[in-house]
Amino acid sequence: MFALLLAAALSVHPMTVSVDAREARRGVFHTAVTMPAAPGPMRFVYPKWIPGEHAPSGPIAQMMGLRVTAAGQTLAWRRDPVDMFAFDVDVPKGATSIEVDFDYISPPIGYASGYGQTPNHTQHLLDLPWNHVVVYPAGERTDAIQVNATVTLPQGWQSATALPSGPVSLTTLVDSPLIAGQYFRTIDVASNVKIALVADSEAALALPADRVAQLTKLVSEAEALFGGHHYRTYTWLLTLSDVVETQGLEHHESSDNRAIEKGVTDPVMAKLTMSTLSHEFVHSWNGKYRRPAGLATPDYQQPMLGELLWVYEGMTRYLGNFVLPSRTGIYSPELMHDYVALVAANLDRNRTGRNWRPLADTAVAAQVIGDAPIGWTAYRRALDYYDESLLVWLDVDTTIRQKTNGAKSLDDFTHAFHGAPSGGPMVKPYTFDDVVATLNAVVPNDWAGFLRDRVYKVTAHPPLGALEAAGWRLVYNSHPNDYVNAREHSSKRIDVTFSLGILFHEDGKIDDLTPGTPAAEAGLTPGMTVTSINGRKWSADALHEEIAAGKPIEMIAGFGEHVGTYKLDYHGGEQYPHLERIEGTADVLSDIMRSRTH
């Protein structure tokens, strides 16, 4: 009876969420949540499983100062001893609502990968994902809970959000983050699409005109790719700061994107930032509108099942980081070739874990792998459902083209699966069988077997045949890979995995090491720090020069004061992956990359 009364009350009397962010410079967000209640036992919950984060990453450790009141009384609360996100109170007689007050404290440095587990503030800006500052009655569908939300900002700060005015569902609230700051700018990109930037300096807001033009083209190319859209308006929210962590999180009508302070003004970093914007935009179709049934949960407490993340994230990697950045000119053809070559080579040479772990398990175990340390990634595998699925969907694309003599492509699948009719936000769940059925409607094939072979079986190599079907092959030579250079520039790492087998931090620490490579055979391990190379003090230049010389490598390395000498049996010089055209074959890859909106 209580549940029925509460559900009825929630449909008539919206919850209220009032956030006082005036102390955001200190990382303190005060929140007061009022929700309908009836006398007797009541449970409320803090969001646990966060859409797009694919893990139980609700920042419960940052929830502080909890106080519950009703009818003028302070209520004792009790945390569930098993479910850390659930709280019980006894609502007194005569009370028709309870108020839950607490602070979300933005951490000064990140301690895990969830958005609430990394900084959401600086002296000049704030990021406000609403799931950080809400609680709600347990057992209620978030679609059915109506909410009025307000936020008080530091004086003079401006803000942007896709949140509609008036009462909205709790689902819509959590799906509509807000950014605000002292240095703020919005730019219209298309008739119903804009980008809002907030930064730690005025200079950081200077998004070049050619990049704005690429975003405009991205909107039209996406429309051509999908044949419709599922937002009323769309806003890229972009935070530019060296304090917040570089990330991107998808929403129906916006995305929460974070880059370094020079993320749009540094020519190298701008390309990476633009690729993130493209990826998150694609998620409005693939991930938000079409969503795996296991991820389409009724509330934020139910576990999310990530098995189909190779579709949700993997197809988005293909479309959002390869197809659309190529068609819009975000990446030059040469840089895109180097990007694809790096993805393929890394999965082929630097994932010995693929000999025991199938690609699908990197999706099923996403909440376990996501926060694993970087050391031993090659043996463990990472969230490979992103990158390897780029090759899987390229394989699908080239197979469709081959079977239809070029008459159809994956674009036909995206039209059928993600496209018309256009409209506002909604969720249309799917299963593996739905994906297979749509592929068979494009062109008959054993698509179920095709995908199971590449995703669900242990395979010694990624599907490199997709590159060859597209008219290119993976090769290695001493010519630097431009995307490797860009990634090193952004990550402060040095990648010599294709020669010695080591991924270094810029200070000489071995972040990861591939089993079976010269470095591993010499006895080096992740976590060691290299201080000397062939008698030279550690530096990136010394490393590259000694490898290029083609002579034996001797390193002094260890943990702290405990060091030793390690001899690497390698003489092959520097090695980088590239794509090379296969003579006498059709250049399918270039056709996939070709603009559709000339």
In short, what is this structure?
The protein has 598 residues and is α+β, with helices and mostly antiparallel strands. The mean pLDDT is 97.
Fold topology:
Elements: H1 2-12, E1 15-20, E2 28-36, E3 40-45, E4 63-70, E5 73-75, E6 78-79, E7 86-91, E8 97-105, E9 125-128, E10 136-137, E11 146-152, E12 158-161, E13 168-169, H2 170-174, E14 178-181, E15 183-190, E16 193-199, H3 209-226, E17 234-240, E18 247-250, E19 254-259, H4 267-282, E20 290-292, H5 309-312, H6 314-328, H7 333-349, H8 359-364, H9 366-369, H10 377-380, H11 387-403, H12 410-418, E21 428-430, H13 432-442, H14 447-455, H15 465-469, E22 472-477, H16 482-491, E23 493-496, E24 502-505, E25 510-513, H17 518-521, E26 529-533, E27 536-537, H18 540-548, E28 553-559, E29 562-568, E30 576-581, H19 588-593
Parallel strand pairs: 1-11, 16-17, 17-19, 20-21
Antiparallel strand pairs: 1-2, 2-8, 3-7, 3-10, 4-5, 4-8, 6-7, 9-14, 11-13, 12-14, 15-16, 18-19, 22-30, 23-24, 24-25, 26-27, 26-28, 28-29
